[in-house]
Amino acid sequence: MSAIKEITSVESWEEHVASLPPSTLLIVSFHAPWAAPCAQMANVLSTLASEYPVSEPPSTSWVSINAEELPDISEAYNVTAVPFLVLIRGGKVLETVSGSSAVKVRNAIESHASKTGVVATADTGAAVTTGNAGGEIETEDPEKKKEELFKRLGDLVKAAPVMLFMKGTPSEPKCGFSRQLVGILRENAVKYGFFNILADDEVRQGLKEFADWPTYPQLWVNGELVGGLDIVKEELSNDPDFLKPFSVKANGDVSAAAS
């Protein structure tokens, strides 16, 4: 049965990709150790991998990558949040799935794994699956869809003790307010998770209602909304140690400081 291989360096990644024939479906799982949904997704993928026998040439190849430790690979596949799945065949991205929906992940893998031996010639842009493995059009109840979105948002805001929902990424902010908030977190040596809301309009629009806060960036601490840039500045003005519990300098291991 197939197993998941952990990729720990760019060289290892390049060697692995080069070793695969064009017909192999490469299933890449991006994760981060601080994100609880990633542990759940690891179990889902391990179970799925066990359903695919090892063959020669391999019909599937399963790898896992720490998105933070290998940022060059993460950026190459536009990974803005974890867990994040990328399906590749013949060097072309067939589909991506962001989030921890086991159903979406299974459907995406099964729909492409069934095409083993055929190099995809469709649009190579990344796209999140919206249908099911049988190709039937899904009609979702609006309330159910909203409930599922809010559950996803509830998981996202708790993905790290400190979560920043921003425009762009810390290395390339897309607005001045996001840039300033990133600067504040860096000045205070805070280790934090982030989500690029420009990469997911569903999250961008849904979080406004979920948080009852209409603008970005948004800073969340232990699953609770702090607010935007002005509120964070105000909190620090009133209490300079506001972010100290999450400081790497103060705690050595930020994950141990926030429960």
From TrEMBL:
Gene3D superfamilies: Glutaredoxin. Signal peptide: none annotated. Residues 162-226 form the Glutaredoxin domain. InterPro entries: Glutaredoxin, GRX_PICOT-like, Monothiol_GRX-rel, Thioredoxin-like_sf, Thioredoxin_domain. It holds the Pfam family Glutaredoxin. GO terms for biological process: intracellular iron ion homeostasis. GO terms for cellular component: cytosol; nucleus. The keyword Metal-binding applies. Residues 8-102 form the Thioredoxin domain. It comes from the Eukaryota. GO terms for molecular function: 2 iron, 2 sulfur cluster binding; disulfide oxidoreductase activity; metal ion binding. Keywords: Iron, Iron-sulfur, Metal-binding. Belongs to the glutaredoxin family. Monothiol subfamily. Monothiol glutaredoxin involved in the biogenesis of iron-sulfur clusters. Binds one iron-sulfur cluster per dimer. The iron-sulfur cluster is bound between subunits, and is complexed by a bound glutathione and a cysteine residue from each subunit. This is Glutaredoxin. It comes from Canariomyces notabilis.
